[in-house]
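A further point concerns the way the authors explain their paired sequence and structure data. The central task, working out the structure tokens from the amino acid sequence alone, is never made concrete. I therefore recommend that a typical entry be quoted early in the introduction. An entry of this sort, consisting of the sequence and the corresponding backbone structure tokens, reads as follows:
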Amino acid sequence: MDRALLADFLRTRREALQPEDVGLPRGPRRRTGGLRREELSALAGMSADYYGRIEQQRGPIPSEQMLTALARVLNLNPSERDHLFALAGHPAPGRIANENELSPTFARVLGRLSDTPALVLSRYGEALGRNAAAVALLGHDYMRYEGLARYLVYRWYTDPVARELFPPEDHPERGRVFTAEIRAAYTADPKGQAREIVEALLEVSPEFAETWRRHEVGVTHHHYSKRYCHAELGELELYCQPVVDPERAQEMLVYTAEPGSPSQAKLDILVARTRNDHSLSP
């Protein structure tokens, strides 16, 4: 918990909020703008002394319930709310319920992106949207799965078909990447969907359990080329660039090849086959 930064953040947000913003009269004797401490504490359902001690950098660590109440009264957006929880030493609460529904912005992009494969994943690795080129590259539609099989990391450790996309010598690294990603989701929200995925994998996959025990973080699969195995065209070396929607904790992966390379030629063949295919909805 960073008491100084927490106090400063709450104070600046309180002073930026006007009485009329929360349904309070301004009153003729109010000399400064912003809410008073006692007004904010009353609206949040806590004592003025309790809240005052937070802004004075003393007192107990605010509970998740208190932080939720403060975020509500201060009209914090999701990013500000997550920041508030982090300053108080708590994991960020679950995002809005529609975080596992395709972002409208990503849906529009997918609808116009036809010259390169693109796939949208939730923070748990569930495919939320894709274009026809992505289905052609990956070999099948990632949105066809149900249950725990919806999540990429679960398929990697339980379904041999999931590994056919990568050369066998790359499998250990892929496993490290997928495990680190589900760890990041688990750390951000230990009571969320990641918990169910991790607990299930610990029961059924000794390989996952071994990789999980290494506690690796920050392992990335972006910004460098990776090899993909296509059933008809053979091996492609592609870059996988993420585009992030932080409000919904989603990322769109866009696959590209080095211009003029054999992989680019193969990618062009895939795109040409699917450019006129409008059977897939994002």
User: Anything to note?
Assistant: The two ends are 41 Å apart (CA to CA). The longest strand covers residues 234-245. The chain has two domains: 3-87, 101-274.
